[in-house]
Structures are given as structure tokens and as C-alpha cells.
Design a protein that fits this description.
458 residues; 2 domains; globular
Length: 458
Amino acid sequence: MVLLDETVVVVALDPMARGLDLTASAMHRVVLIYALSLASLVPVGGMATRRFGLLPVFRSGVVLFAVASGCCGLAPASGLAELLILTARAAQGAGAALMLPVATTVITDVYEEQQRGRALATYAGVAQVFFVFGPLVGALLTQFFGWRSVFLINVPLGGAVLWALAEARLRGRAPGEPVRVLQPVLLAVALVVLVSALYQSGIWGFDARTVPALAVGVLLLAVSVRVVLRATRPVLDLRLLRNHTYAAAVAVTFLVQAAQFPVLVHGAVYLRQALQLTVLGAGVSLLPFVCALAVGTFVSGYLLEYFQSVRVPVVWGLAAATLGTAGWAAALPSGAYLWQIPGMIVAGLGMGMPIPALSAEMMSAVRVSERADASVLRQTLRQLGGAFGLAGAGALVLAANDQASNAAGTIKASATLHGFVFASITLATTFTLAATTLPRKRTHTTHTMRRPRNNHNT
């Protein structure tokens, strides 16, 4: 539900924009505000689980997510449409932020050490598949039931999740830690200001508003990081980044998401608007990319197990992703769909390989007692990667798009190319980072305590 909703609206953006009279920047914000809300509030989800327990927080997240989805689907086509849809999307992100930390923690708890790596890789892979198949699901729902159905479908899905949770008979833990307000508020405000300023730079240009807004965002982020580091019980355990292997894996994950998200969003909009395909046609036309991404996702875990090195799926994958995205970008100006297919396939295969392997590597690189905090930090930075990537690429696309197209909610093919160039450069940078920082052999850091033998004959 959570990752599907990041991308299920991608193909529905154009009919949604026409139905609610949204501009091109508002279209971007419908996707961006969900990712930003999710990323900035994941630490709150982690804190809430330590205060109230895993299951109560998870159930609350499911209910909030389903209710907010219903509000998105019922948004009226009026002058307040943009405000209402963006507010409901932010609430969706908040509900998702309550669910994500619980999911990884439960999987970590219920599997034994020797099975945990494969279980986490499988979990990340399945989640990734829903993330990438979102445009196709959105296309099918929009084509046959209208764009509102991509949100309304979450209402019965939320009920099904609550039923499945009751059947699983999981145990919730509630240590009763105090709720901290200052840290998450500072972090959320800093991230919203910084990402918004980055995105708005595409509309404002580098004028008297842009530089001060970016400077304020950076300053607020620095202050919030300092407050978190000095806290006795931080809402985000940034000290985990002192672990070189974990820090490298988190950084690569951040950058992969920063490239993948813009490609998925702008690729879908390009097929719909520049090639003037139907909603279903745009979803089907993304299948080479989506299917290749799914294959790369599932191949990742097997490559990790076979070679016992995270570098194989990550570095090989990033090399393919860089070449594929650059090839796809080179074919965009021609407007010929067939020429784009090879780049789609190579890019999708490459982008699918790093995330599952990195997820398993990160959780293996930290102590057992640190895994809950490591999961929250990983999820936060991964979602932030998507938000920053979409904001950066979106700023370039809006800057290259003319004002008339922006006002009409249309993105020209020449402007879309800038988003793909941004993704290609980001992937090339990520390849260099991964090749120079990731360990050559798989990390196994358990640090579990063995019970002493109770020898009554001694």
C-alpha cells in the first residue's frame, strides 16, 4: 500500500490535473508532498512504536492512510481542489510513516539470523515491485474506473490489512518511552523548507527568493541535526552513520531513489503527454522498464547470496542503470517509442538490483540491538532520496518548460529531457560512490549475547 501509492498516481496525474484544473507544478506536488511527508515523519513513526507499541501504531497508520486516501478520491473539482488534494496526500504520507518502521522491525524479529538477510531482501524486493508496478496499476484503474479509483481502492485494502494483522497474532511491544516533540518538529520543518525551496527554484529561478530560502533550509537542517545528535534518546540515531558500511549503503540507497523516482514520474508523464497515448497505453508502454526493474529486484538477492558480496548487484546494477537511463534520454527527442525500449530495459534492470541487496547489507552491518533504529534511519533517508530527487529534477523540468505549458499542466518533451539528464548524472555519481566505498565481502555483524551454560556437574 505504502510504496504503491508513491507511483500509482503517476499515470493518473494528467487526467487528475484536467479534472481538478491543476498546473504542472501542482501535478509534481501531488507526488512530491506524499514522499516528503512520508520521509520527514518516519522518525515519528519509530518514536511512536517505542512509546505505544508496534501494533497500535501500525493500526493507526493503516486507518489514517485509508481515510486520507478516501479524501483524495472525493476531492471536489472546485477552487480549493489543489489545497484539499495536497492536504490529503500529506495525511497519506503521515499514515505511511506510521507503518513502515513497524514492518521492517517485525520481519527482523520473526526470522532467525541465518534467514534474516534473505527475508529482508525479499521484503524489499516485493515492496519494490509494488513501487514499480504502480504506474500500470494506476493506468488500469484510471482507464476503467477513473482517476479517483487509484485512491479509493485503498479504503477496502486498508480493511484487508487490518484483518490480516489480526490473523497474524503478532505481539506488540510498548516500552513506554517518552514522546519527544522538538526533534521531529525541527526535522520536519527543515526538510519541508529545504525541499520546497529546491523545487521552487525551478519556478523562481535564482533570484532574491531562491538563495535565502535554500540558505534557511540548510540552516534549519544543520540545527535539527545538531539537536538530534546531542539528544540522550534521539528520534533518529544518526550515530549509526559512524558505521562505514552502513553509511555507504544508506548513501547509495538515497542516491538510487533520487534517480529512480524522477525517471518513473517523468517517463510516465512523457508517454501520456508528449506521445499523446491513452492512460492505459502509457501504462502498458512503461512495461519494458517496469518488468526489467522487477527482474533486477528479484535477481539482486540471488546475486548477493551467490557472490557473498554486495558490490556485485549494486555496482553492476548502477553501471547498467547509468547507461540505460542515458540511452533512454538520448531517444526522447526523437519521439519514437521503439527507440526508447532498449534504454528502458537496461535502466530498469540496473535500477532494480541495488536496493534489495543494500537493504540486507545495512541490517547485517549493525548490531541486533541497533536494527530497529537502523531500519527507521534507512527508511527515512531512502524516502528523502526520492523527495530530493523529484524536487531537483522537477525544478530543472519546470525551468525548461514554458509558462504557458506550466499553467496548462503540460510538460514538453524537451523539458522532460532535463529530468532524465539529472537522473543519469545522479546514477553515474552513485556508481562511483558504490565502487569506492562498499565492502568487497558481505558483512555479518550480529553481536548477539550467548547464554552461559548451566553446568550442574561443575
